[in-house]
Specification:
Helix content of chain A is 43%, strand content 10%. Chain A has 326 residues and is of the alpha/beta class. Chain A is globular, with a radius of gyration of 19 Å. Chain B is α/β, with parallel strands linked by helices. The model of chain B has no long low-confidence stretch (mean pLDDT 97). Chain B has a seven-stranded mixed sheet with strand order 3-2-4-5-7-6-12, with helices on both faces. A five-stranded mixed sheet of chain B has the order 9-11-10-13-14, sandwiched between helices. A two-stranded antiparallel sheet of chain B has the order 1-8. The chains are: A alpha/beta (326), B alpha/beta (323).
């Protein structure tokens, strides 16, 4: 085991920051301040933090439609993210992206993505850029199990393996492709088993356990960074909320969700581990939660008080030097 | 000036840009073997090792990788063997490349060139002959470039490679062997700057891609009829140089817009609509469009003759606007 107390505390703190950010965003939706929809990440936090705790600032990350957690774990500021969800001028994307397109290029977090499976090619492309330039940056792509059904999964991973690119493909298998249980629409149970088709290592981990995710990703990142090529990691996880807001969730029982919350909450699992190691006192725990709570309260306030984008913003950022075309 | 073929001019542009900037690289199907299907990528592998990638047959993957590499600061030049195959990568072009700058509030950009050999070449029927300029004109965030001469091909490709935003670069396959004078040394042609290929007083013919050459041939025939036509080549369809086009229309008052693509909802239609909107009071006759009929490309040489517009179609269109 290579994880340190410091890493654990960072992961534990970030899980709380993600959890509280999400719950606040949900609350702000009910207040009418966040519009559109949210794809809640609660329950899956161990994957984002277990992966990102292995990354450097200059490593690339691309996400999914459910990417608030990936952004926070990569270091994005929660106040600018919340402002983006509000559609305010101070948002990470100046109010032009919203929940499904949160990005922070200063952290090489190249964005959430609204199209399932669409990030796998571009992440392989950032890895290709690193290879051509001769840097040792690693690229990580998060995607859901639904994305493994898309042709982009096959086309991109095949090239990632062909050219031995420094990329880690991280499948967050939460068991449901929107409303449909994976087993109804896929014959291969574990996405990790598909790695063999590309002659790359494939490992399935318990995605509720941040330590397990951290250890497996550490190996995959080290392999990528040292020129050993890509890996495919499946993190078996579970989302506590529906696919998106307003999901009636008739495809699963309340008992199932409650059981998972009781027995597979990634925050509890990491807390138990740290407590066993004497790495976290209850006073430490209180402080982590207090700080995360304060941060998110400030983020919501920042978003609420921020100005709306100016009308002229509608026509900027189409092209670098937009020509009058109409 | 040096005389060279259209594909040689593209190759020269590519080599010059790769020598100038290490972030430029090439990706596509069969781009190394035999120097590429159109010889545009010939010599790159030898001169710039490690900067050309011969890919599996996977257009969505190729363009997807290009998007990511471009977001990371590289300048990919992608060849799609036949334009028709770009439909396999529409998400990557339309939802990823085109929208990235906007969705991220200006943080991200995709400086990527997608080269699109298009139109009828050898007779390969409906799935290897399409044009689709208007499909991409319709998408904000994309630039649509259509060179008609070797000189324009070189200057426009160099500008495309240096552009900070995605470029859909149309190369009509039958144009690859056309020869023309290309200025020596480095030169760039700005986007959004139409070129008046022939000055005239009676009719404005706006001609796209290979229709420029056909219109020049038509102009010679029309001279015998006493008509002096002006030929405006937009060179880039998005951005579109509305100013140069309208200036010519105001002078002549008569307009023919011609392209090889289907004129129904095609590139010529947008230009015709723009002129009708801005120059209606200057028009002495209704605008006439010349394009292919709204049918897939047939196989038989006899049928193709009824699809691809030629100089004769331009002549009869000019006669219509003059009558």
């Amino acid at each position: 085991m290579s994880v340190t107390q410091e890493k654990c505390l960072k992961m534990y703190t970030d899980m709380w920051r993600i959890r509280l950010f999400e719950e606040e965003a949900n609350r702000q939706t009910n207040l009418g301040n966040v519009v559109g929809t949210l794809h809640m990440y609660c329950g899956e936090e161990a994957v984002a933090v277990g992966v990102c705790a292995n990354l450097r600032d200059d490593d690339y990350v691309l996400g999914t439609h459910r990417s608030h957690g990936h952004c926070i774990a990569k270091g994005a500021q929660s106040d600018k993210m919340m402002a983006e969800l509000f559609g305010k001028a101070t948002g990470t994307c100046r109010g032009k992206g919203g929940s499904m397109h949160v990005a922070d290029f200063s952290l090489n977090m190249l964005g959430a993505n609204g199209i399932v499976g669409a990030g796998i090619g571009p992440t392989t492309g950032t890895a290709l850029a690193s290879k051509i330039r001769g840097t040792d940056q690693v690229s990580v792509c998060f995607f859901g199990d639904g994305a493994a059904a898309r042709g982009t999964f096959h086309e991109a991973i095949a090239m990632g393996s062909l050219w031995q690119l420094p990329v880690v493909y991280v499948c967050e298998n939460n068991g449901y492709q929107q409303w449909v249980p994976r087993k109804n629409v896929a014959v291969v149970d574990s996405v990790a088993d598909m790695a063999g088709s590309y002659s790359i290592p494939g490992v399935s981990v318990n995605g509720q356990d941040a330590i397990e995710v951290y250890e497996v990703i550490a190996e995959a990142v080290a392999r990528a960074r040292s020129g050993g090529g890509p890996s495919l990691i499946e993190a078996r996880t579970y989302r506590f909320y529906g696919h998106s807001l307003g999901d009636e969730q008739q495809y699963r029982t309340e008992e199932e969700v409650e059981e998972r919350k009781r027995n597979a909450d990634p925050i509890n699992i990491l807390r138990d581990f740290m407590t066993e190691q004497n790495w976290l006192t209850s006073a430490d725990d209180d402080q982590v939660q207090q700080r995360a709570g304060d941060e998110i309260t400030r983020a919501a306030k920042f978003a609420e008080q921020s100005p709306w984008p100016e009308m002229g913003e509608v026509g900027t950022d189409v092209l670098f030097d937009a020509k009058e075309v109409a | 000036m040096t005389v060279m073929a259209f594909n040689e001019a593209l190759r020269e542009a590519l080599h010059e840009e790769m020598a100038r900037d290490e972030s430029v690289f090439v990706m596509g199907e069969d781009v190394i073997t035999h120097g590429g299907p159109y010889k545009v990528t010939d010599g790159v592998a030898e001169k710039f090792p490690g900067r050309i990638f011969e890919t599996p047959i996977a257009e969505a993957g190729i363009v997807g990788l290009g998007v990511g590499a471009a977001m990371a600061g590289m300048n990919p030049v992608i060849e799609i063997m036949y334009l028709d195959f770009i439909t396999c990568a529409m998400d990557e072009v339309v939802n990823q490349a085109a929208k990235m700058r906007y969705m991220t509030g200006g943080q991200g950009s995709v400086p990527m060139v997608v080269r699109l050999p298009c139109g009828v070449g050898r007779l390969l029927a409906a799935q290897h002959s399409q044009i689709m300029e208007s499909w991409f004109m319709h998408v904000p965030g994309l630039q649509v470039v259509v060179p008609s001469t070797p000189a324009d091909a070189k200057g426009l490709l160099k500008t495309a490679i240096r552009s900070p935003d995605p470029v859909m670069f149309f190369e009509y396959k039958r144009t690859y062997t056309h020869k023309g004078e290309v200025p020596e040394g480095e030169y760039l042609i700005p986007f959004g700057k139409a070129d008046v290929k022939r000055e005239g007083e009676d009719v404005t013919v706006i001609a796209i891609g290979p229709m420029v050459q056909k219109s020049l041939e038509a102009a010679v025939l029309l001279e015998d009829e006493g008509y002096d036509i002006e030929i405006v080549d937009p060179r880039t369809l998005s951005p579109l140089d509305t100013e140069t086009i309208c200036e010519s229309v105001r002078k002549t008052g008569r307009v023919v817009v011609c392209g090889e693509d289907s004129s129904f909802a095609g590139s010529v239609s947008e230009i015709a609509a723009m002129i009708a909107e801005r120059c209606f009071s200057d028009l002495k006759a209704p605008i006439v469009r010349v394009g292919s009929p709204h049918v897939p490309m047939p196989f038989s040489a006899e049928l193709v003759k009824h699809v691809v517009p030629e100089a004769a179609n331009v002549v009869s269109a000019v006669n219509r606007v003059m009558s």
